[in-house]
DNA sequence: GCCAACGTTGGC
DNA sequence: GCCAACGTTGGC
């Protein structure tokens, strides 16, 4: 099972919104690198949910419930979407500053390439972030 | 609000 | 096919 991180501006769609909705279509990705990661997602993969612009922290865990399909919001039919479901909030948000300060996360893809909206997370990185998010 | 990073577009 | 110009994202 693979692990991922997705970014969302909470003003547009927050983790609380995902919890309320239960699941959602993760569409609107218009970046080839991010789209490749979407295509690689499998049902059951787990996803860190990061709030960009406001919050700047990983706030919860989501799960992949539907694998890549053509993004209905892309008229050109070039990009794909998946469906994500809320799993649980982290007991404590893990901020970007904390992640940057952790040497074990130096190679985290979302730190190395800040603009990437969907990125892979290695098993050790996943474990480290969850540990930081314990109460 | 500014700026860095990076992807995309378009002229040649 | 190269590369400058431009647009977007996202942290600060």
Rg value: 14 Å
User: What is the tally of helical segments?
Assistant: 6
**Structural class by helix and strand composition:** alpha+beta
Sheet with the most strands? 6 strands, mixed
Uncertain stretches: none
Q: Distance between termini?
A: 25 Å
Give the overall shape: globular
Mean pLDDT: 94
- State the share of residues found in helices, binned by percent: 25-40%
Strand content: 35-45%
CATH architecture: Roll
Strand order of the largest sheet: 2-5-4-3-1-6
Reading the helices and strands in chain order gives EHHEHEEEHHEH
CATH superfamily: ph1033 like domains
Oligomer: single chain
What's this entry about, in short?
The chain is of the alpha+beta class.
SSE blueprint:
Layout: E1 3-8, H1 10-13, H2 15-21, E2 23-26, H3 32-40, E3 46-51, E4 57-70, E5 80-95, H4 96-101, H5 109-112, E6 118-121, H6 123-132
Parallel strand pairs: 1-3
Antiparallel strand pairs: 1-6, 2-5, 3-4, 4-5
The protein binds a DNA duplex (12 and 12 nucleotides) through residues 7, 9, 30-33, 52-53, 56, 96, 113-117.
List keywords for this structure.
135 residues; alpha+beta; ph1033 like fold; six-stranded mixed sheet; globular; DNA-binding
């Amino acid at each position: 099972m693979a692990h991922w991180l997705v970014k969302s501006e909470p003003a547009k769609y927050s983790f609380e919104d995902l919890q309320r909705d239960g699941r959602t279509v993760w569409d609107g990705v218009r970046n080839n690198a991010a789209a490749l990661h979407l295509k690689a997602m499998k049902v059951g993969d787990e996803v860190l949910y990061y709030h960009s612009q406001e919050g700047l922290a990983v706030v919860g865990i989501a799960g992949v419930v539907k694998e890549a399909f053509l993004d209905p919001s892309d008229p050109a039919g070039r990009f794909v979407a998946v469906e994500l479901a809320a799993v649980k909030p982290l007991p404590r948000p893990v901020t970007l500053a904390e992640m940057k300060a952790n040497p074990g996360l130096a190679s985290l893809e979302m730190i190395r390439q800040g603009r990437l909206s969907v990125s892979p997370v290695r098993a050790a990185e996943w474990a480290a972030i969850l540990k930081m998010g314990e109460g």
